[in-house]
Amino acid sequence: MKISDLPGPITASKADWLAGTTWLGFTPTNGSLQSRSQCQGTIQRQYAGGYVIEYITEQFSEPNPGFETDPQYLAEREAHKELAGRFIAVHKLRTSARPLETILGPEEFTRLQDMWAQGEKRWRWSVAFPIVETYDITDRPKAKDVLGKTGYRRLFQRSSATLGVLNEEERAALADLEIEQRPAANAWIGIEDEFVLAEASEIDDRIRRAIERDLSDGALEGIEVERRVKVRKRAAWLAQEFVKRRRREKTLHCDACEFDPSTVSGIEGINPRSLLDVHHMHPLDEGARYTTIKDFAMLCPTCHRVEHARIKVAAKG
């Protein structure tokens, strides 16, 4: 899989000397609610709903006195030697009202501030964006090699407390980097935030029935009944967003056999969409992984039946 295969564009870069694993943090100018809101708004505008590529700086910062021999710090410093100057990951961020202390837990948050905060300014990285979808860049290339001198200098020559917004030339240079998805520990935040959006949406009955068929109780085994209802509603909401995109892109055809209803004669007045089904390709992941519209396919009824037959055979084997 390449960056160009992602369901959305890569829009910005994050430079840091510590690799983000479950969240990316940004430091507001002060600890006030207004400052945090302004910082969050800036970051949100910069990544604009796209993906963020993570770059590890050449330099590594020193912790507060007393932490110079901390085992975690020493391990991170050693790991930095292999990562410095490289692109290491691509992340999907989630804007969340949850403070960093809630995301990390009070004990880890206190430790983080003790180690890195400057004096009484205990709001280091306090504007936190949970990572809900994440990909390792497989060969971890040097940023200079990928972007060239001009792109590298523009994005990383000066340190920045926010993101670097990518231009079209830089996005093109990154498009062919190989990536591999890995589990995102904070996927639950994105899922639960979208329960609210799904609940407020009107879902087409046909889409709802199709998703309920895909997400049988077997697919959602182990999820409590109340949450199962929310998971199904969110999946149907995503499926509806998927159909809307396909309409906008004018790509209403079967993804398996390429059947295009609009090319069939003698069915004038029939909605082409009515001859196609929306299908959840990864029903076992729903409710556990942060699924997106890339987890859905458009299939003709025959290919849809074949796909369900394959799922049954795979489940038996």
Verbal overview:
By secondary structure, the protein is of the alpha+beta class. It folds into two domains: 180 residues, no CATH class; 130 residues, no CATH class. The protein has ten helices and nine strands. Helix 7 crosses helix 9. It is globular, with a radius of gyration of 22 Å.
Domain count: the total is 2
Query: Structural class of the helices, strands and pairings?
Result: alpha+beta
Oligomeric description of these chains: single chain
Q: What is the count of β-strands?
A: 9
> Low-confidence parts lasting 5 or more residues at pLDDT below 50?
none
Question: Short description, anyone?
Answer:
With 317 residues, this protein is α+β, with helices and mostly antiparallel strands. It has helices spanning 33-47, 71-83, 100-104, 106-116, 143-156, 168-174, 187-199, 205-214, 225-249, 301-316; strands at residues 10-16, 23-26, 51-56, 87-93, 127-137, 164-165, 179-182, 277-280, 296-299. Strands 1, 2, 3, 4, 5, 6 and 7 form a 7-stranded mixed β-sheet that branches.
Strand-helix topology:
Blueprint: E1 10-16, E2 23-26, H1 33-47, E3 51-56, H2 71-83, E4 87-93, H3 100-104, H4 106-116, E5 127-137, H5 143-156, E6 164-165, H6 168-174, E7 179-182, H7 187-199, H8 205-214, H9 225-249, E8 277-280, E9 296-299, H10 301-316
Parallel strand pairs: 1-3
Antiparallel strand pairs: 1-6, 2-5, 3-4, 4-5, 5-7, 8-9
Helix pairs in contact: 7-9, 8-9
